[in-house]
Amino acid sequence: MSRLQSMTGFARAARDHDAGSVAWEVKSVNGRSLEARFRLPAGFERIEQTARQRLQKRFSRGNVQASLTFTQSAALRRPVVDEDFLKEIAALAGRLQDQFGTGPATADGLLGLRGVLDFADPVADEEMRASLDEAILAAFDEALQGLEEARRDEGSALQAIMLDHVTRIEALTDQVEADASRSPEAIRERLREQVARLLDATTGFDSDRLHAEAAILAAKADIREEIDRLRTHIASARALIAAGGPVGRKLDFLGQEFNRESNTLCSKSNAATVTAIGLELKAVVDQFREQVQNLE
Q1: Model's pTM, two decimal places?
Q2: Where does the Endoribonuclease YicC-like N-terminal domain lie (predicted)?
Q3: % of the chain residues with pLDDT over 70
């Protein structure tokens, strides 16, 4: 039996490089299709397209968020001061002190102003940039592998739950089929009672019309087709669950069909016992459909 895959999971992967350390955090939740959002540090937008393509090769559904953090190597962090800007700011601070008596500017205060102090790009060299990108994408592949395993682990748990739901649906279908109210004798007795009520309430009723109405009542009460279709859907659901992989959409369709048949069964029922079984069947089908929404 293959493994189903949930759409929910989380994974993290990190790598060290001469330029610094990189770390990916990838998480996914339910979604009707595959949607990916990337949060990348400034300057690393260049790797998004390749990363997105690698993600799309692994997954077909789910809302995925991928976040990259990059910490520069301390050995390569070289401070760069915009001296012209610093002189202008220092001169302005001096004028403010002379005119308004403000406190004197300090070196740490001036250097802390936006645009005065920056750090040189440690990966300006093309060779090092290519090497860093390779490390980033390798870490991303590792994170995707971890996410896939997390989704499969949860899918395995869902697999057992869904098979249990299918087994319960089958058991309830068996109960409906075996219910005493569906025996020919019980059906004849209900029809006899209905016909008797019609005769009591009507004068001059045509006997041919009476037989036709009785036949219509019998046809409306027959739930053989619903039972047969339920059994077909049960077999299909088990086959899809056993096949594994991205079968969430197909199981979602089967869930709709289960719901349709259980509704029809309840509407056609003319026995309290069958109605009670049908209502329980609807509850189990709802649980089945709820779990399907978690599957890829």
Answers
A1: 0.69
A2: 4-159
A3: 80
Dihedral sign for Cα 200, 205, 207, 212, please: negative
260-273 confidence digits (pLDDT tens): 999 998 888 777 88
CATH of the domain at 52: 3.30.230.10
Place of tokens 């690393």: 44
Q: Supply φ then ψ for residue 113, to 5 degrees.
A: -75, 145
Q: Distances in Å between the alpha carbon of 244 and those of 21, 251, 252, 269, 296?
A: 37, 11, 14, 36, 10
Residue position matching structure tokens 């056609």: 268
User: What is the extent of the structural domain holding 52?
Assistant: 9-76+125-148
Asked if residue 2 is part of any domain, the answer here is no
| Same-domain pairing of 72 and 83 | no
Distance CA 250, CA 18 (A): 48
Please compute Rg for the chain using Cα positions.
35
The count of other CB atoms within 10 Å of the CB of residue 7 is 24
Would you say residue 112 has pLDDT above 70?
yes
pLDDT in tens, 40-61: 998 899 999 999 999 999 999 9
pLDDT on residue 261: 94
Query: Do residue 144 and residue 164 come from a single domain?
Result: no
Query: pLDDT: is 123 or 70 the higher one?
Result: 70
Domains held by the chain: number: 3
162: Cα within 13 Å, side-chain hemisphere? 33
Helices 248-268, 126-178: inter-axial angle, 10-degree rounding: 20
The mean pLDDT of the chain is 85
Tell me the average pLDDT across 247-266. Answer: 94
Please tell me the distance from the alpha carbon of residue 95 to that of residue 8, in angstroms, as a whole number: 60
In the numeric block, which tokens belong to residue 266? Answer: 């309840």
Q: Tell how many helices (H) and how many strands (E) occur in the chain.
A: 9, 6
Question: Do 144 and 16 sit in the same domain of this protein?
Answer: yes
